[in-house]
Each structure stands twice: as structure tokens, then as C-alpha cells.
Design goal:
By secondary structure, the protein is an all-alpha fold. It has a single domain, classed as Up-down Bundle (Growth Hormone, Chain: A), CATH 1.20.1250. 77% of the residues lie in helices and 0% in strands. The chain contains 15 helices and no strands. Helix 2 packs parallel to helix 5 and helix 9 packs antiparallel against helix 13. The longest helix has 32 residues. InterPro entries: MFS_dom, MFS_trans_sf, TM_effector. Keywords: Cell membrane, Membrane, Transmembrane, Transmembrane helix, Transport. One of its GO terms (cellular component) is plasma membrane.
Length: 406
């Protein structure tokens, strides 16, 4: 008899703590983005902020992936959560003292990006220890629903905090959001599995190379990584410069930005709910349609001057990005062997987060230099072509039978 995911005690405990930390994540993202735009009114500066917050995953993510395959994941999650909370608290104090200029924001964005890169690698490898293999796709979908529910609620909270209490208070709330997660992580009871066989005998770079070779030699994993790269860079890139788009295209302020972010959250929640009932065999066709649709939505967005239609398009882009994110993560999680999970999933995380960062930077630079219409149409068409190539003749492998922790 199949075990319900709602009987997985450790997973539900972890989920309770994640509710707060993911709210903090979205409050932080919107607050930093709004502060940068308010200070500079430059798409390039805004794109650089997004780049520094997310691109570190590409550089240090694989290193963290090797560490995750060697160490106690619960303890590592506690340490990184404390660091993330302290970074937000210190930045809050600097903003309160009016010491946070655009360069200071970039410095903290880099620190947050590195810490988030570590936590991303840990989280992606920790969740499989909390649920059975059969419940893994459901766990990924539920995580996506939670993440994007926060994406809907978090920006609204951020908008209200920024408008009525100020940026410093908003960042202090972010720091407080990590406290429940830290408590929950300390309460988890896990049996540590064997990590990399002979891990102490090999260097980090040898282990990184082994993980990279494993991913590149799997046709399915390689295509899935290509797909998430396209979705993140082109499908999500626009979402990273929304503070500028809302102001430049629609002449609106922080409240409109909050609703635009919430529309993205609603689209992602719908995608997560839909995917929670999907079988693995239906994921690849769904991802193909989603990523191609992302490119087409970018083209449509370039021609609309209606804020209401813009809300719908942003919701659609987020829906498509979530379909691709959940689909690729689910298929890789059930395809990769346990010994390589940390490294392969850190590679997925690096591409997913780093792709969004690079996309935000490209959208920021090109919209400022050549304008929104040319940038959006070009990015949209590139997205369609690469998505079609990445999903041609992609098939699923036989399911893996892997030992679990006892």
C-alpha cells in the first residue's frame, strides 16, 4: 500500500519551518529590488543586483554540492539559515542608519547569493531523506506550491511594510522569518546515509568532475538541464527586472509591483497544483509546451501597454517556469543515483538560479540600451527555438531501485 506523503513526519515538520523562510525570501527579493530601483532608476543596476543574488550558484554551487554529499545536511542547513538571517538583520540596521547605498546593496546581494547557493544545494539533497521515493514527485510539487504561495503573499507583505514601515523594518522581518526554520531543523531526526564512497580520499575537484561526467553522460539529465537553463534565463529573466518594467512600461509604483509579483505567484501555484496529479510520463510534453509558451508570452508582452493584460502575461510566464522547474527537478531526482544526488542537484540548482540571474542581467542591460520591444521579441524567439531542440525525442529511463537510510 502506498504511503501518503502526509504521513511523512519529518517532511511535514520541515515544511512548517519552510513556510516562514520562503515568505522571508520573497519579502527580501522585492525589498532589495525596490530599494535599488528607487536609488538608481537604472535597469542595469537592477539586473546587476539580481545577477549577484543568484549567479553565485553557478560558481560555488558545485562546490557546495560536493560538500553536501560528505556532511551532515541538517547541521549544514542550520548554519546557512543562521547566516541568511544575520545578513538580513545587519542590512536592516544599515538601512535604518541610512548607510545602504547602491554599492552596499550589491555587496549584500553577493553575500546573500552565496549563502542561498549553499542552502539550495543542502535543501535539494535533504528533502529526499525526508520522503520515500514514491512520494518524491508529490514532495517537489508541494514544495513548489509552498514556494509560490509565498511568492503571492510575500510581495503583498513587502509592499505594505515598505509603504507604511519602511525598508529597514521589511528587512528585519526577513531576518525573523528564519527563526522558525532553524528551530524546525534542530528538531528533525534523521539517519545519515553513506555519502560519497571514499569521500575523504578524493579532492573536491575530482568529485565535481565525477558528478559533471555523470550528468553529461545521461541523455535525459543533460536535456533536462538544458531545458531548465532556457526556462530560467529567458522565461524568468523578465521577472527579475519587474521593478523597472512596472515603472517604465506602466508608470506605476510599489503597490503595482506587489500585485505583479503576486500574479506571478498565483500562476506558479496553479502550476504546482496541476503537476501534483501528473505522472512522470506526462511531464516532458508539459515542459515542452510550457517553455515554448514562455517565449511566445514574451513576444506578446512586448506589444501590450495594458497593465491588466501584463498581470495575466506575468502570471502565465510564472506558470510556465514552474512547470519546467518542477518537472525537471522531479525527473532528475528519481533518475539520479544516491551517491551523486548532491552534486547533480546542485548543478540543477546552479543552472536554475544562475540562469535566472544571467537572464535578469541580460534583460536589464538590453532593455536599457535597445528598449523593451526588441529585447523581449529576441529573447522570446530564442527561447522557442532552444526549447524545441532540447525536448525532441526525449524519453524516460527505467526507474531506479535505490537503498534508503535505515
Amino acid at each position: 500500500m502506498q504511503r501518503s506523503i502526509f504521513t511523512e513526519r519529518n517532511y511535514l515538520t520541515y515544511l512548517c519551518g519552510s513556510i516562514f523562510s520562503t515568505q522571508g525570501l520573497w519579502i527580501q527579493r522585492m525589498t532589495l529590488g525596490w530599494m535599488m530601483w528607487d536609488q538608481t532608476h537604472s535597469e542595469s543596476w537592477l539586473g546587476m543586483l539580481a545577477f549577484l543574488m543568484f549567479f553565485p550558484s553557478v560558481v560555488v554551487g558545485p562546490l557546495f554540492g560536493v560538500m553536501v554529499d560528505r556532511i551532515n545536511r541538517r547541521q549544514a542547513a542550520v548554519v546557512t539559515s543562521i547566516i541568511l538571517g544575520l545578513l538580513s538583520l545587519v542590512l536592516s540596521l544599515l538601512v535604518w542608519q541610512q548607510l545602504a547605498d547602491e554599492m552596499m546593496l550589491l555587496f549584500f546581494a553577493l553575500g546573500i547569493g552565496i549563502a542561498n547557493s549553499a542552502y539550495q544545494s543542502i535543501r535539494l539533497s535533504l528533502v529526499p531523506e525526508l520522503v520515500s521515493d514514491v512520494n518524491m514527485p508529490k514532495a517537489v510539487a508541494i514544495n513548489a506550491i509552498l514556494y509560490n504561495t509565498s511568492r503571492f503573499i510575500g510581495p503583498v507583505i513587502a509592499g505594505l511594510l515598505i509603504k507604511y514601515q519602511g525598508n529597514a523594518v521589511a528587512l528585519a522581518v526577513v531576518a525573523a522569518c528564519y527563526i522558525p526554520l532553524i528551530i524546525v531543523l534542530l528538531l528533525l531526526k534523521l539517519d545519515e546515509c553513506q555519502r560519497i564512497s571514499g569521500a575523504k580520499q578524493f579532492t573536491f575537484f575530482m568529485d565535481i568532475k565525477a558528478g559533471l561526467n555523470y550528468a553529461l553522460n545521461s541523455d535525459l539529465i543533460l536535456r533536462l538541464l538544458m531545458l531548465i537553463a532556457v526556462s530560467a534565463m529567458f522565461g524568468r529573466g523578465l521577472l527579475e527586472i519587474l521593478p523597472a518594467a512596472v515603472d517604465v512600461l506602466y508608470g506605476r509604483g510599489v503597490e503595482a509591483l506587489a500585485w505583479m509579483n503576486s500574479a506571478a505567484g498565483i500562476g506558479a501555484i496553479i502550476a504546482g497544483l496541476l503537476l501534483s496529479s501528473f505522472s512522470a510520463g506526462r511531464l516532458i510534453p508539459a515542459m515542452r509546451i510550457a517553455v515554448i509558451s514562455s517565449g511566445l508570452l514574451l513576444v506578446v508582452f512586448s506589444y501590450t501597454s495594458s497593465y491588466e493584460l501584463g498581470l495575466v502575461i506575468i502570471g502565465g510566464l510564472s506558470f510556465c517556469a514552474t512547470v519546467c522547474g518542477v518537472g525537471t527537478q522531479s525527473l532528475i531526482q528519481v533518475s539520479v543515483t544516491s551517491a551523486f544526488r548532491g552534486r547533480v542537484m546542485s548543478l540543477w540548482g546552479a543552472i536554475n538560479i544562475g540562469g535566472g540571474a544571467l537572464g535578469g542581467l541580460l534583460f536589464g542591460v538590453f532593455t536599457e540600451s535597445v528598449g523593451y520591444p526588441v529585447t523581449l521579441v529576441t529573447m522570446g524567439l530564442i527561447c522557442v527555438v532552444i526549447a524545441y531542440v532540447a525536448t525532441r525525442r526525449t524519453t524516460l529511463p527505467a526507474p531506479l531501485n535505490q537503498p534508503k537510510c535505515d
